[in-house]
């Protein structure tokens, strides 16, 4: 068991802790370019706001960094405001000094999505390991868009979203029926190649999935539980998302306020 659970007072503190992990990777990169793995959705937004603040205020530089998105909707036009390529530009990368050409996402507009998935997997393999991978978690335990049933060794592929995930993501679209049915997502095996996984979850609606991921059986029924096999996985929670966890169980609980920085 190598999951480190960190409970912090609120989403802003969680964002700062995630930003610490990213900043450590960026400033600690020895030699080659740092590879950042980025999630979209609501959970990482405080971290992204914090990274933008540190860039502007402290000069934290992303020059030379490369960024790789976890997933992308299939079938949205490239310039659709909810395509993850656009979301990550709007929420993060347009506000940093990262080269826009170094921000990569699976091609959700490809005529042959399976070929696009294989190309993205290849791109990731050629880039070398992701140094720090930011993750959220779905209410059904998905990571990336690896829905329940996803195999541990899965690689980038086409996935059909569950009704629950489409309903959860409907808040980003004008009409629920506009949420795409299919996505391209890095697989569990792809995500597992990253050197450091940092999963952030806030709010009470995430508590059951977090508890299942950290304390429940390891298996494809709760894809996030498969990350417990990873050598370095940090789970950053606010108290509401941590409500289903108890101390002294299989996950190693670290006390409120324990910073991510310095963790294995
Ligand atoms: C998005 C992604 C998803 C989200 C998850 C939680 O790139 O990979 O796994 O992290 O659906 O979404 P939010 O944070 O919006 O609750």
Key features of this structure:
eight-stranded parallel sheet, binds fructose -6-phosphate, Rossmann fold, disordered C terminus, alpha/beta
Can you put this structure into words, describing what you see?
- It is built from seven helices and eleven strands.
- The chain has helices at 11-28, 45-58, 84-91, 113-127, 163-169, 188-192, 207-215, and strands at 3-7, 35-38, 66-69, 71-73, 103-104, 132-135, 157-160, 182-185, 196-201, 233-237, 252-254.
- The chain is α/β, with parallel strands linked by helices and 264 residues long.
- It has a single domain, classed as Rossmann fold.
- The protein is globular and about 40 Å long.
- The strands form two sheets. Strands 5-3-2-6-9-10-1-11 form an eight-stranded parallel sheet, with helices on both faces. A three-stranded antiparallel sheet has the order 4-8-7, with helices on one face.
- This is Glucosamine-6-phosphate deaminase.
- InterPro entries: Glc/Gal-6P_isomerase (IPR006148), Glucosamine6P_isomerase (IPR004547), Glucosamine6P_isomerase_CS (IPR018321), NagB/RpiA_transferase-like (IPR037171).
- Pfam families: Glucosamine_iso.
Order of helices and strands: EHEHEEHEHEEHEHEHEE
Would you identify the CATH architecture?
3-Layer(aba) Sandwich
- Helix count, per DSSP? 7
What strand line-up does the widest sheet have?
A: 5-3-2-6-9-10-1-11
Give the names of the bound compounds.
Answer: fructose -6-phosphate
Low-confidence stretches: 248-264
Hey, roughly how much beta strand do the residues contain? 15-25%
Query: Radius of gyration in whole Å, from Cα?
Result: 17 Å
Based on helices, strands and strand pairing, what is the structural class? alpha/beta
Q: What's the N-to-C terminus distance?
A: 13 Å
What value does the average pLDDT take?
92
Shape: globular
CATH class: Alpha Beta
User: What percent of residues adopt helix (DSSP H or I)?
Assistant: 25-40%
Biggest sheet layout: 8 strands, parallel
Total of domains: 1
Number of strands: 11
Quote the CATH topology. Answer: Rossmann fold
């Amino acid at each position: 068991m190598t999951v480190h659970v960190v409970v912090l007072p609120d989403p802003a503190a969680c964002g700062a802790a995630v930003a610490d992990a990213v900043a450590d990777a960026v400033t600690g990169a020895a030699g080659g370019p740092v590879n950042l793995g980025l999630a979209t959705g609501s959970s990482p937004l405080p971290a992204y706001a914090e990274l933008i603040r540190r860039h502007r205020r402290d000069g934290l530089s992303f020059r030379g960094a490369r960024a790789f998105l976890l997933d992308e909707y299939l079938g949205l036009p490239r310039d659709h405001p909810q395509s993850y390529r656009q979301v990550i530009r709007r929420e993060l990368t347009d506000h940093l000094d990262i080269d826009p050409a170094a921000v990569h996402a699976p091609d959700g507009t490809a005529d042959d999505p399976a070929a696009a998935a294989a190309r993205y997997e290849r791109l990731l393999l050629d880039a070398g390991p992701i140094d720090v991978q930011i993750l959220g978690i779905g209410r059904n335990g998905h990571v990336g868009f690896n829905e329940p049933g996803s195999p541990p060794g899965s690689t980038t592929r086409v996935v059909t979203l569950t009704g629950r995930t489409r309903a959860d993501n409907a808040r980003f679209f004008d009409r629920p029926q506009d949420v795409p049915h299919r996505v391209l997502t890095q697989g569990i095996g792809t995500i597992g190649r990253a050197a450091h996984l940092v999963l952030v979850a806030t709010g009470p609606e995430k508590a059951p999935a977090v508890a299942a991921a950290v304390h429940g059986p390891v298996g494809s029924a709760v894809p996030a539980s498969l990350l417990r096999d990873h050598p370095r996985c940090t789970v950053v929670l606010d108290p509401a998302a941590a409500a289903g966890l108890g101390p002294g169980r299989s996950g190693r609980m670290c006390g409120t306020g324990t910073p991510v920085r310095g963790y294995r």
